[in-house]
Write a structure and sequence with these properties.
The protein is of the alpha/beta class. The chain has four domains: 227 residues, Orthogonal Bundle (Hypothetical protein af1432), CATH 1.10.3210; 233 residues, Rossmann fold; 156 residues, P-loop containing nucleotide triphosphate hydrolases (Rossmann fold), CATH 3.40.50.300; 76 residues, no CATH class. The chain is 41% helix and 13% strand. It contains 31 helices and 23 strands. The strands form seven sheets. It has a seven-stranded parallel sheet, with helices on both faces. The longest helix is centred in the first third of the chain and has 27 residues.
């Protein structure tokens, strides 16, 4: 009997003949004997699906560990077995009959599906009652997503393992069934023997699952949609080396700074320190550089040199705000532009805006698996993926291993998720050949301290050889506390300066202050209610006017603090966390062009309403302000994080994420008590996801939206990336209260503003009825 994995139809729905279907298994495959198979490598459509998935899954799994290590060899075996057994249930006659009926135009409508995932999960547990459970979680979940071990219903791992009404798989060839579950990788075996740490086992299970689902998607796509496979990134073997060459050329082009150019002298010193530290072994690093010290290019310089030295595959840049992605991606894209071809993309941006979440052929093509040399993503996307249950979000995880992860503005990690975030970073750097660089101007005190901070990171190394000297040399700002200020007083202070920036915590407050400035005062306003293209145009105008010494008064929400390269002589900052205050000061005399220190003023606004996070950190900052003269000094920063992190121990894992992973060998039914789905539901860096809306801001936006209306056009990467320049994120409540202002496209996946002339302002961006909507300003956005 010939077994099949997938059928195929013409675009009009006409089934293809059986000889064009994808075989389930090819017994002559060389990989079965540990060799290399050209048909697996080429994803030959007439080669067995299980063979191809096993080949890819084993390749992905082994690449998570250093070459030559025993962990790498063990992971290769685990990945291979996961791929070989994941569709074991398709050997059942019932499933083959279902597949044939489904493709027969003359048969009645086929209803229901035949469970083909459970068989492989049960077989892995039957083969090895302990280790087999780690395979079982991923195999059972390769379509539905990772499950909890036990729930009140039938949708849980124990129920799947005890399920009796599944088809028998006696037809499966011995080449598949006569295989044993491999031993744990040595690193994991050592951990389990020492303290039976269930989190490490769950982490490995999730990464193995990532290898399986990515392999399954790619192998299926190669058969069902070959054009999609051809459009995927085909990275040249020397991709990272070429990017390193281009970045080095850019750095050399800056030239040697003049003797009186202190700022650029110190930036050159940062680059030099990064190049020297890159030769150290993989692991944990901190990069403590003042705002304006050139962290973006310097950290990338370190990452590329380090990855090339240690055989790591990519650089993943993790930032807290989408506004930083816009700027950093633009800088890096300009450097690597010459490498961009029809088959190779050196840089991929990935955040939640316009990233389709449904498991369809189109969305899989549009949702990257991070198979590119440089990834720029958000902290939300990065950390939530590490705890996600959905196949679409897990798929990329194996590409985080064996990489350099640069965590920009690391101090922005929320205190109530510190334990799971830091534990994940430690796990990656200890065991998965990953290097993490915590890159910030205000380094939080997150190092391990048994007495005060037991969840802290161990074995961190500082890249900058003399951070204090660097901070002293780059001190370009004087910080003053001017106490409570009414809006009228603040208005007058802003008008007294030819060029001034004022940053507040709420967008309503920013709008009110902007309106109080005279229309002829060269006033500007920035807000997250403006689409990225709009913000970019305003920032370009402001930079030009600053460079030409023209008057500029800018009122902004805090989005301007995160990586926006802008330089004012005077900055006013509403009281917030000390790290935010330091970021605001980083927009003041940023390039050291003044012959005197820039002036940054902290004030308490008369509008005392603030989003919860800002209010909480502002209260801590207020305590530090009263006790330190140098608020940007390392002592003040350490004291701030001491109060904010160390003294909030009950909140370090407020949602109990780590309690979802337990181990009890006495429970034979399922000793690994993993609640993957519950952990995913509870791990939300942003509690309430925003609704993304599209703004017909200019002619380019209107053309892209018109393409979106044409449902014959696939949601390809170019279209989605283009549309991202015209998005605004709002609360679901605000969207629902103004639903009639939007046109919904693609089955409600996209929402387009109907009348921008009424609901979009050149001064404020999106204008909607907010009578019943909250005015929260999110500190972390995706």
């Amino acid at each position: 009997m010939r077994f099949y994995a997938h059928t195929k139809s013409d675009p009009d729905g006409t089934p293809r003949p059986q000889e064009e279907w994808e075989p389930l298994f090819s017994e002559g495959c060389a990989t079965l004997q540990g060799g290399e198979c050209e048909k697996c490598q080429s994803l030959d459509p007439q080669h067995g699906h299980l063979n191809k998935v096993a080949y890819l899954a084993s390749k992905f799994a082994s690449e998570m560990f250093p070459k030559g290590s025993q962990d790498r060899e063990s992971a290769h075996q685990w990945g291979y077995l996961a791929g070989l057994w994941h569709d074991l249930g398709k050997f059942a006659p019932e499933w083959q009959t279902y597949l044939k009926l489904k493709s027969d135009p003359h048969s009645d409508e086929v209803s229901g599906k035949v469970d083909h995932s459970t068989a492989g999960a049960q077989y892995s547990v039957k083969t090895h009652h302990l280790f087999g459970h780690l395979l079982g979680y991923g195999i059972a979940a390769h379509h539905c997503g990772l499950l909890d071990v036990l729930t009140n219903g039938n949708s849980c791992q124990e129920a799947r393992l005890q399920k009796h009404d599944i088809p028998k798989v006696d037809n499966a060839p011995e080449a598949i069934t006569q295989r044993n579950v491999p031993e744990f990788p040595p690193f994991l075996m050592e951990i389990m023997r020492a303290d039976r740490n269930p989190f490490s086992a769950a982490f490995y299970t999730r990464f193995l699952f990532s290898c399986l689902v990515d392999a399954d998607f790619l192998a299926t796509e190669a058969f069902m949609n070959p054009s999609g496979t051809r459009s995927r990134n085909a990275a040249p073997p020397d991709g990272l080396r070429e990017i390193d060459r281009l970045l080095s050329d850019r750095i050399k082009a800056f030239g040697t700074p003049s003797t009186n150019d202190i700022v650029n002298q110190q930036r050159a010193k940062v680059v030099s320190d990064c190049a020297q530290a890159a030769h150290q072994k993989p692991g944990l690093f901190t990069l403590t550089v003042p705002t304006g010290g050139g962290k973006t290019l310097s950290s990338l310089h370190f990452g590329l040199k380090h990855a090339l030295k240690h055989g790591q595959q990519r650089i993943i840049y993790v930032v807290p705000f989408t506004s930083i992605i816009e700027q950093n991606a633009e800088v890096i894209r300009e450097i690597v532009a010459s490498l961009q071809t029809e088959t190779f993309t050196p840089l991929v941006e990935h955040h939640a805006s316009l990233s389709p979440d449904k498991e369809t052929e189109q969305s899989r093509l549009a949702t990257e698996n991070w198979d590119a040399p440089i990834i720029i993503t958000t902290a939300v996307q990065f950390f939530e993926s590490l705890f996600a249950a959905k196949t679409s979000r897990n798929r990329k995880l194996h590409n985080i291993a064996n990489a350099v992860v640069i965590l920009d503005e690391a101090q922005s990690l929320p205190v109530n998720y510190l334990t799971p975030c830091l534990r994940s970073i430690q796990e990656l750097t200890d065991y998965y050949n990953t290097t993490a660089v915590l890159c910030t101007a205000t380094q939080p005190a997150i190092n391990y301290n048994e007495a005060e901070f037991s969840i802290g990171l161990k074995n961190c190394r500082e890249i900058i050889q003399n951070p204090q000297m660097l901070f002293d040399a780059l001190k370009r700002v004087e910080l003053s506390d001017i106490g409570e200020q009414t809006d009228a007083e603040l208005r007058q202070r802003i008008l007294n300066s030819k060029q001034a920036l004022c940053i507040v915590n709420r967008r309503k407050h920013a709008q009110a202050l902007f309106r109080q400035l005279p229309e002829n005062s060269d006033r500007y306003h920035l807000s997250a209610l403006m689409c990225p293209e709009h913000r970019s145009q305003i920032l370009a105008t402001i930079r030009r006017r600053l460079n030409e010494d023209q008057s500029v008064r800018l009122v902004s929400t805090q989005l301007i603090e995160a990586g926006v390269d802008i330089d004012f002589p005077v900055v006013y900052r509403a009281l917030a966390g000390l790290d935010s205050i330091a970021q605001a000061a980083g927009r003041c005399n940023r390039n050291g062009k003044l012959d005197h220190p820039g002036q940054t003023y902290i004030f308490r606004p008369e509008d005392q309403k603030a989003e919860t996070f800002v209010r909480e950190t502002a209260q801590v900052a207020a305590q530090v302000i009263d006790l330190h003269n140098d608020l940007l000094g390392r002592e003040a920063i350490h004291h701030y994080f001491d109060l904010y992190y160390y003294r909030q121990k009950p909140r370090w894992d407020e949602k109990g994420i780590l309690s979802n992973f337990a181990f009890d060998q006495r429970l034979k039914s399922c000793p690994f008590r993993f609640n993957f789905r519950t952990a995913a539901e509870n791990f939300k860096l942003i509690e309430n996801w925003q609704t993304t809306v599209l703004i017909p801001f200019d002619e380019n936006a209107r053309q892209l939206i018109q393409a979106l209306r044409n449902e014959n056009i696939l949601l390809h990467r170019t279209l989605l990336r283009g549309l991202q320049r015209y998005t605004v994120q709002i609360t679901p409540r605000l969207f629902n209260n103004n639903a009639t202002a939007f046109e919904s496209l693609r089955d409600g996946e996209f929402h387009v503003l109907i009348s921008p002339e009424l609901n979009y302002s050149s001064e404020f961006g999106l204008i909607l009825d907010e009578a019943h909507a909250s005015d929260q300003f999110l500190n972390v956005s995706d």
